Amino acid sequence: MPTATTSFRQRVYRRLFDQRTRSGRRVEAFFALFALFSVVLIFIESGIGTQYHLTFEEWHAFVWLEIFVTLVFTFEYILRVLCWPKPANYVFSFWGFIDLATVLPLYVLWLWPEIGIHYLFAWRAMRAVRVLRILKVLRFMPSLMILWRAIARARQQLILFYAFIAVMMIVFGALMYGIEGPQYGFTTLNASVYWAIVTVSTVGYGDITPHTAAGRTIASILILIGYSLIAIPTGLITSHMSAELNSRRQSRACPHCRHIGHEDDARYCKACGGALAE
């Protein structure tokens, strides 16, 4: 017979982890919006240029807001750990690390104040990680799941493609290192590979530029290659997304007349008008 504690853990679990229920989706959306609110505060605080002090008398409004945000996320994190069937699995999971990162910044500043004050920019960056909480809501959107599955299916082709690009960048970087040399800014092989990556991506910062005829020829080839490379990963993901969409349409069969080919957002069968399963 379930105890009151077990029943409470189950209710909390459904509200925090079960996004199939309306209450679960609302709780996840609330914490995502709360995380977005905390990130907006960070940008406002950074724009004003406020400084953090550990003396109670010197605390300002942003300190109190940060304390409030941290306490809310800490309470949520403790509840998630306690209601998960195997807490260690949640703590060391990807989303467990994300949730932990939302509560750590203020505690880091309190435990190691000399680190937090001297590296305040890094501390603010740690707090901005909270925006990743929004991904916990986006992952339940059908369109995003289609995109994610398409990327997962194309992962082998993408890995092969980017591995080939990496080899090509090293080869072209080595060529430029040998042709141009340190006198024209190609001081190391690392700098040359950096130039090749910037050039093939058609960004072209201009901090390192070739001066010899051979170097400019290689730069021109890289720019032309860059324009053609942009379409390859896009085409791979698009083809897998089309296959995923067709697969979902074929799998959505009407329970009344067994007609297939319905859209993802369709609620009624286009053949018999019967209600479709969600």
UniProtKB/TrEMBL annotation:
Topology term for the membrane: Multi-pass membrane protein
GO biological process, one term: action potential
Gene3D superfamilies listed in its UniProt record: 1.10.287.70, Voltage-gated potassium channels. Chain C
Molecular function GO terms recorded: voltage-gated potassium channel activity
Ion transport domain boundaries: 33-242
Record flagged with keyword Cytoplasm: no
Pfam families: Ion_trans (PF00520)
UniProt entry keywords in alphabetical sequence: Ion channel, Ion transport, Membrane, Potassium, Potassium channel, Potassium transport, Transmembrane, Transmembrane helix, Transport, Voltage-gated channel
Compartment annotation: Membrane
Gene Ontology cellular-component terms listed: voltage-gated potassium channel complex
Name of the protein: Ion transport protein
Organism name: Enterobacter lignolyticus (strain SCF1)
